[in-house]
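To illustrate the input format used throughout this study, we show a single complete record. The first block contains the structure-token representation of the backbone; no residue identities are included at this stage. The design step must infer an amino acid for every position from geometry alone.
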């Protein structure tokens, strides 16, 4: 299935990562460690550029295999790297996947994550033909929960010991997006 290369709402642009993005992504992660590390296992104080390189260089194969779809979030006008959004844990049997996002600290609180989440969910529902997109946010991650709600996701409940981050189990709030939530045509 051929995928369009980018998605935009006029303010932000989602596109697959490329090798040219490595320096900007690394800089954004380093800037955001204090805010992102408590919630995302891949982010830690010793985060190195090689980790960025490995992640970005693995995205094309994951996309080709249909297992993971990662996008950089960019300012549609300036091209500045703003963060990342992706779909993972794709389950073709039940036509669902997990949606995750993060925005660099200097650009947080401006609606970027919720816009990116909506665009990525539309991609999942329209292009990948999934029936359901799930967002899991640790119960303490109030910012991520606000993003999910602002993106139009429905809060379904708290899942006990659902996430493990740096060896610690965390309860998580489960949100979902289905076609009707985003005005996408019904059954695929």
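Output of the design step:
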């Amino acid at each position: 299935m051929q995928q369009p290369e980018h998605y935009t709402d006029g303010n932000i642009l989602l596109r697959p990562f490329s090798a040219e993005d490595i320096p900007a992504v690394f800089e954004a992660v380093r800037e955001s460690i204090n805010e992102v590390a408590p919630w995302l296992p891949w982010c830690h104080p010793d985060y190195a550029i090689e980790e960025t390189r490995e992640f970005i260089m693995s995205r094309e194969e994951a996309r080709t295999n249909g297992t993971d779809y990662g996008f950089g979030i960019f300012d549609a006008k300036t091209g500045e790297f703003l963060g990342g959004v992706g779909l993972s844990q794709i389950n073709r049997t039940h036509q669902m996947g997990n949606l995750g996002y993060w925005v660099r600290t200097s650009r947080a609180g401006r609606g970027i994550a919720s816009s990116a989440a909506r665009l990525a969910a539309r991609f999942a529902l329209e292009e990948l033909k999934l029936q359901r997109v799930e967002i899991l946010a640790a119960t303490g991650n109030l910012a991520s929960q606000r993003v999910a709600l602002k993106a139009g996701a429905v809060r379904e409940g708290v899942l006990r010991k659902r996430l493990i981050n740096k060896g610690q189990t965390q309860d998580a709030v489960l949100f979902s997006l289905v076609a009707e939530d985003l005005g996408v045509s019904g059954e695929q």
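Structural context for interpreting the output: The chain has five helices and eight strands. The helical segments are 22-36, 49-65, 112-127, 142-150, 179-182.
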